[in-house]
Amino acid sequence: MSSSEELFNKAKQFIPGGVNSPVRACNSVESTPLLIKKGSGSHIFSEEGEEYIDYVMSWGPLILGHTHPEVTREVHNAVDQGSSFGAPCSQEIQLAESIRQAVPSIEKVRIVNSGTEATMSALRVARAHTGKNKVLKFIGCYHGHVDNLLAQAGSGVATLAIPGTPGVPEETAKQTLLAPYNDNDAVEAIFEQHGDEIAAIIVEPVAGNMGMVPPRSEFLQKLRETSNKYGSLLIFDEVISGFRISFGGAQEYYNVTPDLTCLGKIIGGGFSVGAFGGRSDIMDHLAPCGSVYQSGTLAGNPVAMTAGLTTLNLLSKSDYQSLANDTREFAQELSEILASKGVPIRLNCLGSLFSLFFTSEEVTDFDSAQKTDLNLFKKFYNQMRKQGIYLPPSNFECIFTSFVHTRKDFEQTLEAAKKVEF
Ligand code: KE4
Question: Tell me, what DSSP letter sits at residue 215?
């Protein structure tokens, strides 16, 4: 038995399912998780010392790769000064300013400790601002494990095919309205019926939790128009897309301005950071300016702020178009290799995000994403992992590249794909 297997069995004695986040358990691909000991650049190393090319990259934060030398150096310097003071520090001001410079719709930002905290808090302040209670989300989108937002969520909820929302009170779940992604007619119909009750639409402007599904043209702009028409807010959950699709996120790429934006992952540079922000007249409802309460012991701590700040500074000088071109070329080659094996394959790719769906239909929402052949994905995942390629253990997640993946990494991955048998 490998040391990963031994340790995972031990983990299950102390931690539910042996993991601190369900999708890591590899249940849907009927595999045992690798325990990872080290990361460097685009590679990770298991407890057994085996090396893998990493296309999970901690589920998105590490667009600069593992242990980026400048990020690591600055974090070492910061931690030598102290880890957390529970008091304002200059680094959180610098990170807030960097976020606002990169994302102009964010006039004010509150920094928190996770993407879940960001979306939960954005929803609370939207309700306070509008005086309305309902929220409209999209089937297959995932916004963290917030009570109101777990209804028909993507990511691990979809991966584990968890029905309903166990543990969420029915009266809470009733406040959540659902529409298919990319379906403006369904949104309009819901607003015609509930428009005066809906505080906000929350959407992943580029969906990353049903696999990668880009917005159809005009989808986001029409959400903007509908929310304006009914006096609801538009919240972009850019926890994945922020600083990934472009430096200014999906809202810059598609030129659609939300009222509030949720961020996470990349802005923490590998540390636990989330943020939500937007129009000052909305954000100033937050205590201590206003009476909407939200708080966090370690929010804005200088070490995580330094990691995020260093990351954004480096990204502000990075060539996103080149990364997107390299990723698309690689993803198309990978897709063609799999198609040559006689399996149905559909590729969705944008920037440094892509997904391969084993289906012959275009994937534009969760319903079409669910038509992917999960058995073929399981074979693909496990045979690639045996050859040193570490893919997300779910077809309802994204494959992430980074500024440190090399052509050699891509060539090695393509060679491994050629050996996969279905
Ligand atoms: P966290 O609370 O995990 O920091 O962020 C929640 C979240 C919010 N919004 C979006 C669009 C997200 O994708 C996420 C979290 N993403 C998943 C992977 N798709 C995190 C991985 C996991 O749950 O283990």
Answer: P
